[in-house]
Amino acid sequence: MNELGCSVAAAAIADNLDSMMQPAEWTRHDAVWLAWPSHEDLWLEQLVPVQNAFVAFCEAIVARAATNNEPAERLEILCPQRRHAEAHKRLGHLSPRFHEVPFGDIWLRDTAPIFVHDATGAVCAASFRFNGWGGKYELDGDGDLSQALAVVSGLPTQRHSFVLEGGAIETDGQGTVLTTEQCLLNPNRNPGMTRSDVEQRLHSALGARKVLWLRRGLQNDHTDGHVDTLVRFIAPGRVLAMEPNGRNDPNAEALLEVLDDLSRMRAADGEELEIISIPSPGVVHDSEGRLMAASYVNFYISNRGVAVPTYGVPADQDAVDAIASLFPGRLTVGVRARELLAGGGAFHCISQQQPAARSRA
Q1: Would you kindly state where each structural domain of the chain is located, as residue ranges?
Q2: How far is 262 from 284, CA to CA, in rounded Å?
């Protein structure tokens, strides 16, 4: 089978793969895809706190107090039938659309398709392989979710045999893509694939004109160094990263390494990156005293707002305020994510935006 096996619906665009482009997250969305936390066997006593965080996150997405006059994006939420009444009770005031599509867990950034624009500005679903973050967490439904959700979306679909999680990449919408060697060159994803091979596939599938390689991610990151916990684009050529939070920051070495690497990188247009940094959360432990990969840059940018994960530590409010200053017109709110993080990630990890079609003008 060729590297790209396109569905019948995508046949008309299969000859123009180089024209595909993943838009930046701050561009207008039609919808965001999420999954209602449902699995008692996975979340145990944390299920209700995680559901509470999920509801607060959805409320932040619609952000009725925003000043930019953007329409709220639709909440497209996967939910088992047995949990529908519960989810509707908690989320009905936000007018979500529920879908009975089997899923393993709620990390749709990695298990859902990545939505892209084609040359005409139309939206397509790019469906990649998912192998449980290198075989570490393989749950029923997750491996098939990308293709299943693409069908539910009703969009033309490209199927890629390349293993790729959405949290492993970060784009400025202009062809510059950030990633880490720890993840995308890890033999547990695409064994035998070289850096050049990866870059070519990112170019064909997502419009990457230049791939910027960081080395590693945070300690105890289940994803092998996803970049969306390290660095985020906030505008073309402009990035937000974290700096160590004091001498005891467990990720001090990695964070300084990231800042140093970014200082020597250039975007696809040849310009140096503008780097903004905020202190990391520092030391955050789970209920059993284990270090967690806490990050403030795992925020989600919606049409109207920005939802920033917080962890009940002193740096929380300063981080929310600093991020708010970067997104004028959007309502930036901090939402508790400590219980959610115990499952492996925060708000960017559980969401996958579906962009609006791009105007041809």
Answers
A1: 19-355
A2: 25
The rounded distance, in Å, linking the Cα atoms of 227 and 217 is 7
SS3 148: helix
pTM value is 0.94
DSSP 3-state of 231: strand
Tokens representing residue 42 in the block = 């996975």
Distance, C-alpha 211 to centroid of its chain: 17
What is the signed CA dihedral for 56, 238, 213, 150, rounded to 10 degrees?
Answer: 50
Q: How far apart are CA 220 and CA 200, in angstroms?
A: 30
Q: What is the three-class DSSP state of 227?
A: helix
As beta bridge partners, residue 176 has: 210
Taking Cα atoms as reference points, which of 94, 55, 136, 144 lies closest to residue 47?
Answer: 55
- For 144, phi and psi rounded to 5 degrees? -100, -5
Asked if 330 and 320 count as a contact pair (C-beta separation under 8 A), the reply is no
* Cα 162 versus chain centre, distance: 18
Distance of alpha carbon 168 from alpha carbon 184, whole angstroms: 7
What's the distance, Cα to Cα, between the start and end of the chain in Å? 37
Q: What is the pLDDT of residues 284-322, one digit of tens each?
A: 999 899 999 999 999 999 999 999 999 999 999 999 999
Q: What confidence tens digit (pLDDT) does each residue in 314-357 have?
A: 999 999 999 999 999 999 999 999 999 999 999 999 999 999 99
Q: Are 119 and 19 in contact (CB under 8 A)?
A: yes
Per-residue model confidence as pLDDT tens digits over 138-179: 999 999 999 999 999 999 999 999 999 999 999 999 999 999
Q: Is 6 a catalytic residue?
A: no
CB distance 332 to 324 below 8 Å? yes
- CATH number given to 19-355: 3.75.10.10
Beta bridge partners of residue 129, listed in sequence order: 163
Please give the structure tokens belonging to residue 61: 């997405």
Q: Kindly write down the DSSP assignment for every residue of 237-267, as one continuous string.
A: TEEEEEE--STT-TTHHHHHHHHHHHHT-B-
